[in-house]
């Protein structure tokens, strides 16, 4: 092999390697946790599997049904967290003391991405009566948006304390629904109703969502995976259209689109 051919082959190998590795920092498509890899777990299967025995009445797998209002009409019911005079949106929270130092650090790292990329600020609760209480209950779940009182966000220690799941549930607490529940979802995904258990079909209902003029995002951390609520392992309940090979339901952290949505909904000065 001559020198020119060797150099060409080396360049091709380097290009291939660069595409296989995740991009870091501000050029990254997602803000990943440094101690997890894409193969660690499937976010949807992990959440739904952990919630399987939950005693909570849950919609779409991980949304708590409140007794006082419709959990899925957040935008109309003004259940967003309030902006402070300094332009930040402070969300008070508590974390139960029984979580380990490692688990608490994972939660704080997940929160720091919001702090770095948006005007959301998760702050320790002091005298506020409306706050998020992070506990380890029987599943991974949250209320949708601000309820105006103490609201539980459950991160079960046996299956929920993962970077992507923490961010997923925090996004619910900020008022964001699942991506495949969008009002325009039928343009982007096909729901294979015949493979969904009848008692769980309501989890795939379309909602009257505020899409914020932001494109549908197959890579949102809020998107179900292909096999959510399937009747048979390996059979898809959600298929992307028109290209069925598109990856959906990534599990490693917020996408750029997720961050754009936060900044638009809460009228942040975008940091993207």
From TrEMBL:
Binds 1 zinc ion per subunit. Residues 70-270 form the Peptidase M12A domain. Its EC number is 3.4.24.-. Its cofactor is Zn(2+). The active site is at residue 169. SMART domains: ZnMc. Keywords: Disulfide bond, Hydrolase, Metal-binding, Metalloprotease, Protease, Signal, Zinc, Zymogen. Zn(2+) binds at residues 168, 172, 178. This is Metalloendopeptidase.
């Amino acid at each position: 092999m001559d020198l020119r051919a060797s150099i060409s082959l080396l360049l091709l190998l380097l290009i291939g390697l660069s595409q296989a590795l995740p991009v870091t920092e501000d050029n990254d498509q997602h803000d990943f946790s440094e101690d997890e890899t894409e193969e660690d777990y499937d976010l949807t299967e992990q959440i739904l599997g952990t919630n399987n025995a939950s005693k909570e009445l849950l919609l779409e797998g991980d949304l708590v049904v409140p007794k006082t209002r419709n959990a899925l009409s957040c935008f109309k019911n003004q259940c967003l967290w309030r902006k402070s005079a300094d332009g930040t949106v402070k969300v008070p929270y508590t974390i139960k003391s029984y979580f380990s130092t490692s688990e608490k650090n994972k939660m704080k790292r997940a929160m720091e991405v919001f702090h770095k990329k948006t005007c959301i600020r998760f702050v320790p609760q002091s005298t506020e009566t409306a706050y998020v209480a992070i506990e380890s209950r029987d599943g991974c779940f949250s209320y949708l948006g601000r309820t105006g009182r103490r609201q539980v966000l459950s991160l079960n220690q046996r299956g929920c304390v993962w970077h992507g799941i923490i961010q997923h549930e925090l996004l619910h607490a900020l008022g964001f629904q699942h991506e495949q529940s969008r009002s325009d979802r039928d343009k982007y995904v096909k729901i294979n109703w015949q493979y969904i258990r009848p008692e769980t079909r309501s989890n795939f209902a379309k909602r009257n969502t505020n899409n914020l003029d932001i494109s549908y995002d197959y890579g949102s951390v809020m998107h179900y995976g292909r096999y959510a609520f399937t009747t048979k392992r390996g059979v898809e309940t959600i298929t992307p259209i028109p290209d069925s090979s598109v990856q959906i339901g990534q599990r490693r952290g917020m996408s750029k689109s997720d961050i754009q949505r936060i900044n638009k909904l809460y009228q942040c000065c975008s940091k993207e």
